[in-house]
Design brief:
The structure is a single chain. With 426 residues, the protein is of the alpha/beta class. 38% of the residues lie in helices and 13% in strands.
């Protein structure tokens, strides 16, 4: 059978209407699903039959969108969550417990940094952060006998560091742990981490996948490639009987879908961070135009980055599409079609100039959000990374005067005109 290209999968994967059924994915806005016999329902609770009985675990609308995202990433299965933060929490907590350890790249989103450094520590899970650009030996040195996960982002938010996925995958697998990669900024349009050795991918679907700032959501996609059985004692939650499901062994019963199945039927059952069917419906609309929008985001960002780089008031620009950028070569390797529409830059006047610039913008919105159709601007040190001290900001690649500019899909000349007026006051 012909393998559809990504643009076609964005429209058709996950849902195929039959005769007389709606062409648009239906919204199954119901908490509950009916069965005719007690045994039919019991088989579902025992994980012996497929079907829907309660939306906290599964819903036809949600599952169709999850299947589409799995197809886009080239994974075997996906799970949708109520936010990107929930996705990262579930992805790690699915295989970690009290007494375990995580190694993570330091230049990650501030909320995820806090999740790993503070919240997980309260649960008895420690995390060691490493310089994203560190060599294999340095990254390896951070591992402990109880390390369960190596975590990083394809494009760091907001530092825009490009991850050397192959290097991280090599280190992770040498230590017998999976590499989990947050692919939010690149999206599967521009980067497919599984093709470079990553094992699990997460997304904040709130960003480019939605594209219109309409819903908050997240996704976890499993490649199905990590050999959990080879490290059965380490990942006993997957390879040994789960007494909360009458002794089911996920790797035995569900094979390559063991990881996602456990996250769904155990973590989602107990913690319940589900997206609503309406939110998944809205997400699906965004996914249909994702390739078109990413092409425009990347084109506009390239033009804006070149403009900023040449401006006398701009001290530096971080954008891997610029040939002089530190991460240009890695971007060409992993994301030859473009990285994303996010740029970070610093003005000569530092923090004060950044504030004057942002307050002078007319079209661009000062907003916490990023990666949407409209151009948005943010000051990370004051906003997303506000909880960090100066040392942590430096470790995360965030300077006090850094401005994060999320380029939308407006006409690029209008974006530059807005920036030009604001730079006069910077």
């Amino acid at each position: 059978m012909h393998e559809s290209r990504l643009e076609t999968k964005c429209l058709h994967a996950g849902y195929t209407p039959s005769k007389g059924e709606p062409c648009a994915l239906p919204i199954y806005q119901s908490t509950t699903f009916k069965y005719d016999t007690t045994d039919e329902m019991g088989q579902l609770f025992d994980l012996k039959s497929d079907g829907y009985f309660y939306t906290r675990l599964q819903n036809p609308t949600n599952d169709a969108v999850a299947e589409k995202i799995a197809a886009l990433e080239g994974g075997v299965a996906a799970l949708l969550t109520s936010s990107g933060q929930a996705a990262n929490f579930y992805a790690i907590f699915n295989i970690c417990e009290a007494g375990d350890h995580v190694v993570a790249a330091s230049t990650i989103y501030g909320g995820t940094f806090n999740l790993l450094a503070v919240t997980f520590k309260k649960l008895g899970i420690d995390c060691t952060f490493v310089d994203t650009d560190a060599d294999e030996e340095t990254i390896s040195a951070a591992f402990r006998p109880n390390t369960k996960v190596l975590f990083a982002e394809t494009i760091a938010n907001p530092a825009l560091v490009i991850l050397d996925i192959e290097k991280y995958a090599k280190v992770a697998h040498a230590h017998g742990v999976p590499l989990i990669v947050d692919n939010t900024f690149a999206t599967p349009v521009n980067c497919r981490p599984f093709e470079w050795g990553a094992d699990i991918v997460t997304h904040s679907t709130t960003k480019y996948m939605d594209g219109h700032a309409l819903q908050v959501g997240g996704a976890i996609v499993d490649s199905g490639n990590f050999p959990w059985e080879d490290y059965a004692e380490k990942y006993h939650g997957l390879t040994q009987p789960d007494e909360s499901y009458h002794g089911v062994v996920y790797t035995k019963q569900f094979g390559k879908k063991a990881y996602i199945t456990k996250a769904t039927v155990q973590l989602m059952r107990d913690l319940g961070s589900i997206p609503s069917p309406m939110n998944c419906f809205l997400l699906n609309i965004g996914l249909e135009t994702l390739p078109l929008r990413m092409e425009r985001h990347c084109y506009n960002a390239q033009k804006v980055a070149e403009y900023l780089l040449a401006h006398e008031k701009v001290a530096s620009v971080n954008f891997a599409g610029l040939p002089n950028d530190k991460y240009y070569a890695l971007a060409q390797k992993y994301m030859p079609k473009g990285t994303c529409g996010v740029i970070s830059f610093e003005l000569n006047g530092g923090r004060d100039a950044a504030v004057r610039f942002m307050d002078s913008l007319e079209m661009a919105n000062i907003a916490t959000h990023v990666a949407a159709s409209k151009t948005m601007v943010l000051h990370p040190a004051s906003h997303t990374h506000r909880q960090m001290n100066d040392a942590q900001l430096a470790e995360a690649g965030v300077s006090p005067g850094m401005i994060r500019l999320s380029i939308g899909i407006e006409h690029v000349d209008d974006i530059i005109a807005d920036l030009e007026k604001a730079l006069v006051n910077a």
